Each structure stands twice: as C-alpha cells, then as structure tokens.
C-alpha cells in the first residue's frame, strides 16, 4: 500500500521533493498544502518574490527530473559575471567560468508546479492552496490547517504516514520539534532587511547595463542593491540595507523614492517609473531569519527540509541551492543534511 505523504509548503524544496518521491513509482500518495494562492492562476504577486541565482548545486538537483532543467532555463537568464558599479560612474567586472541560471522565485515555483501537474494525476498528487498549517501533532500523526480563502477560515485536520515541513524559515512543522528532547534550534534575525524592486517597463535597448551580468551597487552605510535582467526583458532585484539606521524606512513619497534611486543608483533610477517607485514604497520591508537545527527528523515519520531546516542570509545566494541540493535515495545522502528518516 502506498504511504500518505503530507508536504507543508509548495516552495522550491517541497515541490522538488514531490517530484523525487513521485518519480519512485507508486510508493507514495502526495498531498501538498500551501498557504499562498496558486501562482499559476493569480496575477504575478510582487510582494514576496525576488530573483534567485542557481548554480551547479541547485541545477544538478533539478536535472535529475526529466525535462525540468530545460523548462527552467526557458524562463531564466544565464549570468556570466557580476558588475560592481561605483559611485563615480566606473565599474568593475568579475566573470564566472560557469554561468549562473537566474529567475524569479515565483517563476521557479510555477515551472515545478506545471511539471508536476503534467506528469501526475489526482490519484498520486493533490495540491491544496490557501491552506495555512496551524499546528502539528506528531503523536497522533495529524496536521491542522485553516482555509484562508474561505470566509471565517474554517479549520480542518489531515492525517499522514510521513510529514515533511518545507514551510520556510518560519516553519510551523519545525515548531513541533520544540517538544522533542534535546532538539536545539537557533533562530536569528540577520542584521539587514530587504525590499524587492521591479522595473516594470521593458528596459530600453540603449541602456549600457549588460543583460548577461548581475549588477550591484554598494553604499557606505552597508546598503547593497542587486539587479538583474529577467527573461521577459524587465529588470528586477532586491535592496538589502541595515535593519538599524538605514535610508529606506524614511522614504515617504514616490518622489523621495525616485530621488533616492537617482542619487545612489543612477542606472536604476533612470529606468524607474513613478509606478515602480510607488510599488516600491508600498511594498513592506522583509526581515531575514537564519535558522540552524540540531536535527532534521523526528522518528521515521517527520522531516524538515529547505529553509525550514537550515536558512541562511539571502546575501550569500545559496539558500535555494542548498534547499534543492539533496538526494533522497539511500545511496546518495545530502552532504549538509544528515537525514535519518528511514521511511524515505
Ligand atoms: C531577497 C532574497 C534573495 C535570495 N536569493 C537567492 C539566490 O540568489 N540563490 C539562492 O540559492 N537562494 C536565494 N535566496 C534564498 C531562497 O529564496 C530560499 O533559500 C528558498 O526559497 C528556500 O526554499 P524553501 O522551499 O525551503 O522555502 P520557501 O521558498 O520559503 O517556501 C516555503 C513555502 O511554504 C509556504 N508556507 C510557509 N508557512 C506555511 C504554513 N504555515 N502553511 C502552509 N504553507 C506555508 C510559503 O508560502 C512558501 O511557499 C534568496 C532569498 C531572499 C529573501
């Protein structure tokens, strides 16, 4: 009989895990529960997304699933280096031997979802959106969710044979581990916050910014702006800045945003429209939580993966690569996560 696997979180790590398990044949019936709405049917939400760079660590994990690498590359841009822009208008370039594959997190998730939907029907895979995990009960092997798309947010409970927490740095599944003896988890807010930036218009072809390079600007107060071209010809990125004493919190109007970018990141400021500046102003500041745990499984029925198990600062550009880089087959254990969940 197949095992019922409940995966909490339809981010990169949860969705790739579903691909791996389903590829093994009929052994698993997978149910994925995701707090957000289905990104394939809602209009692109810019509130919690940003460009991700994938190197060989992440790409080699994606490559194990048939056609996935090609589908991801079709919506990505390959970056052959990084341009470090300086205040005096000069710049320095470092080249990469192997290009990075860059795309928006939401587009990565959409490709993973589309490939799952094309390959597996409801008898093997069900994905429930707008379902927020509330609590876990490891003893009874149940998970409680609330449906946030329905009025009054009704609760419901599901049972599982195997539970996987792929629900990111603020994992509710991981919170269930706190009752386990000797479980140690270190959670720290990183001292920088960030805001995503989207330059809506397709970038004018006269721009001197190289489309196959990541562009960065650093200010004396530690603020770091990273921007890159997307496959649709627009540019997007993120600005990281010190949580304390920064110039971003004080921006209070569209004009102030435009002036800030034109003064500090002139190449970006020149491309920023009033509407992109307004969106930037309205977008909430996001905090970065880093996580380290003493173990990633509970008995042989619960596992945490990806950012839920180990989250690092976004400035390293490795979180998603690490979240994807694991193997579930017994002969090829992940180097950084010693999963001991014998049922998987
Ligand atoms: C600005 C920025 C830039 C980054 N750049 C890079 C980069 O260049 N390269 C790189 O490798 N990494 C990068 N990262 C890190 C990368 O985004 C994460 O490591 C990666 O997304 C982790 O994937 P995940 O699936 O484990 O978690 P997540 O992507 O966080 O996905 C978790 C999913 O679970 C859902 N969820 C959360 N709570 C619940 C709940 N209670 N119930 C149901 N669902 C829930 C969430 O909605 C989400 O869809 C960056 C991060 C940031 C913030």
Would you write up a description of this structure?
This protein is α/β, with parallel strands linked by helices and 344 residues long. It folds into two domains: 193 residues, FAD/NAD(P)-binding domain (3-Layer(bba) Sandwich), CATH 3.50.50.60; 124 residues, D-Amino Acid Oxidase, Chain A, domain 2 (2-Layer Sandwich), CATH 3.30.9. The protein has nine helices and 18 strands. The strands form three sheets. The chain has a nine-stranded mixed beta sheet. Strands 6-2-1-10-17-16 form a six-stranded mixed beta sheet. The radius of gyration is 21 Å and the shape is globular. The structure holds flavin-adenine dinucleotide. The site of flavin-adenine dinucleotide (FAD) has 32 residues, from helix 1, strand 3, strand 7 and helix 9. Flavin-adenine dinucleotide (FAD) binds next to helix 1, strand 3, strand 7 and helix 9.
List the SSEs and their pairings.
Blueprint lengths: L2 E6 L3 H12 L4 E6 L17 E4 L1 H8 L4 H6 L3 E9 L5 E14 H15 L5 E4 L2 E7 L4 E6 L7 E5 L2 E4 L6 H5 L8 E15 L13 E6 L5 E6 L5 E8 L11 H11 L1 H4 L4 H9 L3 E8 L3 E2 L3 E3 L5 E2 L7 H6 L20
Parallel strand pairs: 1-2, 1-10, 2-6, 4-12, 10-17
Antiparallel strand pairs: 3-5, 4-5, 7-8, 8-9, 11-14, 11-15, 12-13, 13-14, 15-18, 16-17
Helix pairs in contact: 1-4, 6-8
The structure holds flavin-adenine dinucleotide.
């Amino acid at each position: 009989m197949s095992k019922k696997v409940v995966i909490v979180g339809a981010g990169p790590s949860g969705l790739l895990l579903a691909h791996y398990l389903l590829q093994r044949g009929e052994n698993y019936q997978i149910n994925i529960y995701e707090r957000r709405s289905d990104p394939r049917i809602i209009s692109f939400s810019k509130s919690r997304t940003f460009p991700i760079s994938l190197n060989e660590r992440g790409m080699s994990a994606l490559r194990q699933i048939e056609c996935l690498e090609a589908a991801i590359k079709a919506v990505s841009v390959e970056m052959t280096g990084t341009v470090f822009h300086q205040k005096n208008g000069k710049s320095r370039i470092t080249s990469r031997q192997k290009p990075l594959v860059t795309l928006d997190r939401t587009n990565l998730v959409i490709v993973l979802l589309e490939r799952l939907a094309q390959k597996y029907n409801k008898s093997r895979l069900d994905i429930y959106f707008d379902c927020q995990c509330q609590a876990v009960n490891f003893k009874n092997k149940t998970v409680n969710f609330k449906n946030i798309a329905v009025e009054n947010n009704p609760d419901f409970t599901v049972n599982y044979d195997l539970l996987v927490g792929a629900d990111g740095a603020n994992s509710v599944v991981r919170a269930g581990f706190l009752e386990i003896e000797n479980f140690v988890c270190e959670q720290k807010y990183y001292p920088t916050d960030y805001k995503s930036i989207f330059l809506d218009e397709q970038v004018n072809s006269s721009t001197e910014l190289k489309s196959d390079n990541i562009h960065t600007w650093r200010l004396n107060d530690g603020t770091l702006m990273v921007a890159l071209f997307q496959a649709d010809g627009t540019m997007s990125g993120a600005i990281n800045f010190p949580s304390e004493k920064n110039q971003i919190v004080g921006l209070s109007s569209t004009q102030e945003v435009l002036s800030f970018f034109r003064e500090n990141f002139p190449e970006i400021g020149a491309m920023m429209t009033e509407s992109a500046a307004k969106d930037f102003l309205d977008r909430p500041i996001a905090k970065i939580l880093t996580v380290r745990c003493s173990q990633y499984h509970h008995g042989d029925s619960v596992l945490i993966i990806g950012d839920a198990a180990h989250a690092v600062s976004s400035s390293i550009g490795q979180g998603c690569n690490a979240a994807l880089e694991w193997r579930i087959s017994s002969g090829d254990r992940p180097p950084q996560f010693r999963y001991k969940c014998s049922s998987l």
